[in-house]
From TrEMBL:
Name of the gene encoding the protein in the UniProt record: Ptpn23
Coiled-coil parts of chain: 363-393, 473-500
Name of protein: PTN23 phosphatase
Biological source species: Uria aalge
Main location group: cytoplasm
Span list, region Disordered: 619-679
Length: 679
């Protein structure tokens, strides 16, 4: 109903186009053509005869809608004021497709009145010639009957008229260029064509006759004046019209066809859910064509990617780490964290040094106590040996130590146990002190200014040539990554295009015989992205060749950077290890202090016990010696001792005076060592 009673404006044109498109969608799904199963009678009243014409063919409905669309555009065009070169007539009327589709309809002569603007004359002539050919079509002539001759005559009249106007302007242009001979022939041609138009205009309204008379006055006056001037003044040869450049029409608008499947024109397809099985089958075939295209492209991509991956693996070039110069310009975060932690603990090194000193002091005390015990035991053993030798109980040559007293035996046993523990702990203590001495220097560094920390870290010394080599390698590696990224992006775009590519709607409205052609046309949308991918794949060989050359030059720089990086990492790890070892050192130092404090207490007690046992053993030896002396006969009288005579050291060590010994001849003495014989 909206298409039958359209408003006389551009909104009405839009309604007709939408209805025409929906008819196209409908006839693609439902067999409503002539003599088909769902054909229904369609009736329209012919505007010129007033007769109602009925056909059981949906194409008749489409033809009538196209006719009314053309008629409405004609009316709107005739209403245009045409005061400038800007025209508002819709561009779709100039489309050959529209002309062909409308060949079964009637042309409205009022439409052509819009082209009376002179600058459009050459192009208007071309349009009228095309319209004339459409009217000469035998099918159109049979449909229009007598009116076809009248319209054809009118169109031919306008062809001559606008051709005359076109040559009028060409003559004026020749006049401006002072080509007076050409001016004459153009004006003469304009006059001839205008005369033909006047002949064909018989029976036309007075307005048309008036326009022709006015044009005759203009062209006739121009021709007479030009011919007179050339005959009497310029005397230029008048060339033949065929020898001159033909007048070319230039459209001010681009012809646009009415596309019945364009959603922007027809709106959404209201029959979209009605998809014939044949369309589904064709869609499956098209999907296979898309899949084949994707497989071919992916085979090429994967082959190139495999070569690229193998090449990069062999190079062992990581774009993210090939240039690690930046890391040498600052302290790494992990080290900054340790420096910050030590900044709030300023006594770290002091505490560790003090702990070392305390541990060393306790260690020294324990060692001194054990040494004193050992010295006491050795001294007691020596005294006991001398006594035994003196008493003749141990042969001097035998040399084995005499058995200690029970008290000293226990002390000796405990001392040996403590010495063994001390020796084992001494090794641990030595290692702990080495570790402390190693880490204290690092901890002092971490506790100091950051500039010193940064200065302590190794850094590479590259020449300008080295830097240039490095920059060139980075640039080519960036190209490799750019190539990878572009390849992935194009692949993703291709996959998305294929996934979204649904031409079911087009398949519904396409004849089966045209399917192959439609597939070819639709697959052309992938040509551009395929070209981009081919260019990307072809560039790989050149990129890898450039990378190979750059890597050869990079070998020396790479070795130097690797060595510096190793030193840098080792230094950082060592400093971090020193920080992390602090708590462990303090813990072990405390454990050492606790251990040696306990051992010191035990050693002190053992020392007291050793002293007491040695004193007891000494007292016992005195008693034994006294008893032995009482068993001997009284000594011979001897001269009194000199007042200042000094006791031999051997007697003093045994607690005896020289006068207390019996005469040497009255004793049966064993073989004595030389030092005892001298007594």
């Amino acid at each position: 109903q909206s298409a039958v009673n359209v408003p006389r404006d551009f909104e009405g044109c839009s309604t007709l186009r939408k209805y025409f498109g929906q008819l196209h969608y409908l006839q693609s799904r439902i067999p409503m053509g002539a003599e088909q199963e769902a054909a229904v009678p369609i009736a329209w009243t012919e505007i010129f005869s007033g007769k109602t014409v009925t056909h059981e063919d949906i194409k008749y409905e489409q033809a009538c809608i196209l006719y009314n669309l053309g008629a409405l555009h004609s009316m709107l065009g005739a209403m245009d004021k045409r005061v400038s070169e800007e025209v508002t007539i819709p561009q779709c009327l100039f489309s050959p497709t529209w002309l062909k589709a409308s060949s079964r309809s009637t042309w409205d002569p009022a439409f052509y009145g819009i082209f009376q603007h002179p600058s459009l004359s050459p192009q208007v002539v071309d349009y009228y010639k095309e319209a004339c050919r459409a009217l000469e079509n035998s099918e159109t002539a049979s449909l229009l009957g007598k009116i076809q001759k009248d319209w054809k005559k009118l169109v031919q009249m306008k062809i001559y008229y606008f051709a005359a106007v076109a040559h009028l302007h060409m003559g004026k242009q020749a006049e401006e260029q002072q080509k007076f001979g050409e001016r004459v022939i153009y004006f003469q041609s304009a006059l001839d064509k205008l005369n033909e138009a006047i002949k064909l205009a018989k029976g036309q309204p007075e307005t048309v006759q008036e326009a022709l008379r006015f044009t005759m006055d203009v062209i006739g006056g121009k021709y007479n004046s030009a011919k007179k001037d050339n005959d009497f003044i310029y005397h230029e040869a008048v060339p033949a019209l065929d020898a001159l450049q033909s007048v070319k029409g230039a459209p001010l608008v681009k012809a646009l066809p009415v596309n019945p499947t364009d959603p922007a024109v027809t709106g959404p397809d209201i029959f979209a859910k009605l998809v014939p099985m044949a369309a589904h089958e064709a869609s499956s075939l098209y999907s296979e064509e898309k899949a084949k295209l994707l497989r071919d492209v992916m085979a090429k991509i994967e082959a190139k990617n495999e070569v690229l991956d193998q090449f990069m693996d062999s190079m062992q070039l990581d774009p993210e780490t090939v240039d690690n110069l930046e890391m040498y310009s600052h302290i790494p975060p992990i080290l900054m964290e340790k420096c910050a932690a030590l900044s709030v603990r300023p006594d770290t090194v002091k505490n560790l040094v003090q702990s070392m000193q305390v541990l060393s002091g306790v260690f020294t005390d324990v060692e001194a106590s054990l040494k004193e015990i050992r010295d006491l035991l050795e001294e007691d053993e020596a005294q006991e040996r001398k006594l035994q030798e003196l008493l003749g109980k141990v042969p001097p040559a035998q040399g084995s130590p005499p058995p200690p007293s029970p008290g000293l035996a226990e002390v000796s046993k405990e001392c040996s146990k403590y010495m063994e523990v001390h020796e084992k702990a001494s090794f641990t203590n030595t290692e702990l002190h080495k570790a402390m001495n190693l880490h204290i220097g690092n901890l002092r560094l971490l506790s100091g200014p950051l500039e010193q920390v940064r200065a302590a870290l190794p850094s590479p010394a590259l020449t300008e040539d080295d830097k240039q080599v490095l920059q060139n390698l980075k640039r080519i590696l960036a190209k490799v990554q750019e190539m990878r990224d572009q390849r992935m992006s194009l692949e993703q775009q291709l996959r998305e295009m294929i996934q979204k590519d649904d031409i079911t709607t087009s398949l519904v409205t396409t004849d089966r015989s045209e399917m192959k052609k439609l597939f070819e046309e639709q697959l052309k949308k992938y040509d551009q992205i395929k070209v981009y991918l081919e260019q990307n794949l072809a560039a790989q060989e050149n990129v890898l060749k450039a990378l190979t050359d750059a890597n050869v030059k990079y070998a020396t720089v790479r070795k130097a950077l690797a060595e510096v990086e190793h030193k840098w990492n080792t230094t950082v790890q060592t400093l971090v290890a020193s920080y992390e070892a602090y708590e462990d050192l303090m813990k072990k130092s405390q454990e050492g202090k606790d251990f040696y404090t306990d051992l010191e207490g035990k050693a002190a007690k053992l020392l007291e016990k050793a002293r007491a046992a040695c004193q007891a053993a000494e007292a016992n030896r005195q008693q034994i010696l006294e008893k032995e002396m009482k068993k001997q006969p009284p000594p011979r009288p001897t001269a009194p001792k000199p007042a200042l005579q000094k006791k031999p050291p051997e007697l003093e060590a045994a607690g005896l005076d020289a006068g207390d010994l019996p005469p040497l001849g009255s004793l049966v003495l064993p073989e004595l060592p030389e030092e005892l014989r001298s007594l």
